[in-house]
Amino acid sequence: MSSSPENAAPRAAEPLPAPAALRAQLPAGAAARRCVAEARGALRAALHGRDPQRMVAIAGPCSLHDAGSAFEFAERLRPLAQELRGELIVLMRAYIEKPRSTIGWKGLVSDPLLDGSCQMGLGLRRAREILLGIAARGVPCATEFVGTALPHYLGDLVSWAAIGARTSESQPHREMASGLEMPVGFKNATSGACGAALDATIAAAHPHSFLDIGADGVAAVLHTRGNRDTHIVLRGGSNGPNHDRASVAQAARRLARTRQAQRGAVRGVLVDCSHDNSRRDHRAQPGVCRELIAQIREGAPGLLGAMLESHLHPGRQRWTPGAPLRYGVSITDACIGFAETETLLRELAGAVRSRRQRRRPPASREQAA
């Protein structure tokens, strides 16, 4: 048998539309563009200290698998976000890719029909339709980019991006982040170590040149300016949670040292209340969030905000190709329900108001008169 490289080639190669073509077919309207831009600006102001008060709150499903529940979640989140906008910058978690430790459903882009057929051309279209629909409803989207080509197709609809625990150390993902036009959070490693995420904020802040595809879908060398709107995300690890006061403060101090060299984020620590911080038990997420709420009341100068894995209904359901699914229930990680999410966002906002009142200088006698 020949050992030529062709023997290692993929079984089949399916053409995809160029990013520019898909964007032209499904363009972002004025409302969606405004929503994305305003959220990016608000996030940058919070990161760099121009908005020292408001906290970032990201809440939404572990993964999106159908448009109906995604849009209902956005419609329920929007009035709450508007009500709390003086204290919170609220984004919807809208993950359309899923990194896997071994195997499993890889997300809406990879397998939109949930049947193992992996019709990725359809997945790209459905993902763009859903992100468009969420942003058009006035709710900014937060997602994790797993595939480095995805930002070319969907990046104009995303206000905040995560680079996951398995990819924060990846050079292609750091290069990709250096060219993203949005704030980016690098998660700590699955072990819990933060070194790779901290290094990633430095790497992404600098310009890079690398092989990728252009808007026309043709292979190209991309040249980036660097992205200084980066920070770290604490998600716990195999060595335990890291949402406690000491861990958050230590991460903020370490990030501050890198900030001196790269003029990076002033408030650069966002805490993921799920994953290893909740020991993968969705019922523990409220406790993690309330620990952060206590830290906010006490000051927590480096803390940027919190992320919740939340769906319309709590828990999760097993996904089996072709089997019927319960509406509004996660098919990946277990989530808290929307009612509990609303309670926690109100408590987060209350902590911000409490801290603001304590910091407010006392009125002078002239003001009191």
What key phrases describe this protein's structure?
369 residues; alpha/beta; 8-stranded parallel barrel
Question: Would you kindly provide a brief summary of this structure?
Answer:
The protein has 369 residues and is an alpha/beta fold.
Task: Describe the protein's architecture and organization.
It is a single chain. The protein has 369 residues and is of the alpha/beta class. The chain has helices at 19-25, 30-47, 67-83, 120-136, 150-154, 171-178, 195-204, 245-262, 285-298, 338-359, 365-368, and strands at residues 55-60, 88-93, 141-144, 160-163, 184-187, 209-213, 219-223, 230-234, 269-272, 303-309. It is built from eleven helices and ten strands. The strands form two sheets. An eight-stranded parallel β-barrel has the order 1-2-3-4-5-8-9-10, surrounded by eight helices. Strands 6-7 form a two-stranded antiparallel ribbon. A hairpin with a 5-residue loop joins strand 6 (209-213) and strand 7 (219-223).
Give me the secondary-structure category. alpha/beta
Q: Radius of gyration from the CA trace? A: 21 Å
Strand order of the largest sheet: 1-2-3-4-5-8-9-10
Strand content: 5-15%
Q: How many DSSP helices?
A: 11
Helix fraction, binned, reads 25-40%
Q: Would you list the SSEs in sequence order as H and E?
A: HHEHEHEHEHEHEEEHEHEHH
Shape: globular
Mean pLDDT: 93
Residue ranges: pLDDT <50 for 5 or more in a row?
A: none
